[in-house]
């Protein structure tokens, strides 16, 4: 799947509605790195920022932040949403081609984008833009086949959803020290689960911007309306009324320069 598949206003607006689990990742970061709750980094970079939810989370622990994304629609959305805070800046760039700033970054986050980049070129770029002692945080989280207390959802996910919308190919290798270039150390790697409650319509909105579904829509193999209708009808018996708790899997890798 090409990164350009994410370069549309439809996807950017959908990303704005994604669960803001990024905040929990930043809370965990402070514990993982033994930082005080009041600690603030001076200058942060968020590569592959999407619609800015990960940049918004980084801003919680940073005095100023820069977000970059390959998709112009994403950057345009970020500028619209975060224009009132001068601590934010955004520009279009590949994760491997971040511009060297006047003040090098003391923290870099890459949320959900590392599967699409050239690892070596990315790390070479980080060597140029990150300050000595900086931490690079690569993290991601995604929906699983688990709903709290409901095995019917697991059956739907495995036997219906993945058959209709198979996962598009992408790199999913777990980095080790050997994957890094000289000058960087893999300091820590963590894995975790997170929960988020959805009503049916909100969950359908969320699933429509997953790469599985988006790749089919962008390729013209299914319309957004048809995908939405199928999703809603097949999930109605599982969700019923009210909200359900969905389980997300996540990981964080901490790389020190």
Characterize the structure shown.
The structure is a single chain. With 257 residues, the chain is of the alpha/beta class. The protein has a single domain, classed as Vaccinia Virus protein VP39 (Rossmann fold), CATH 3.40.50. Helices cover 37% and strands 29% of the residues. Strand 4, helix 5 (119-129) and strand 5 (130-147) form a beta-alpha-beta unit. Helix 2 (22-32) packs parallel to helix 3 (53-59) and helix 6 (151-164) runs antiparallel to helix 9. Mean pLDDT is 92; it is low at 1-7.
Write a brief caption for the model.
The chain has nine helices and seven strands. By secondary structure, it is α/β, with parallel strands linked by helices.
- Please, how many helices? 9
Average pLDDT figure: 92
Spatial shape: globular
For the largest beta-sheet, the strand count, sense and barrel status come to: 7 strands, mixed
- Helix-strand pattern, N to C? HHEHEHEEHEHEHHHE
CATH C-level name: Alpha Beta
**Distance between the ends:** 31 Å
Overall strand count: 7
Helix and strand content put the structural class at: alpha/beta
Looking at CATH, the homologous superfamily is: Vaccinia Virus protein VP39
> What's the helical proportion of residues?
25-40%
From the alpha carbons, calculate the radius of gyration and give it in angstroms.
Answer: 19 Å
CATH architecture: 3-Layer(aba) Sandwich
Q: Which regions are unreliable across 5 or more consecutive residues at pLDDT < 50? A: 1-7
What strand line-up does the widest sheet have? Answer: 3-2-1-4-5-7-6
The CATH topology comes to: Rossmann fold
Strand residues, percent: 25-35%
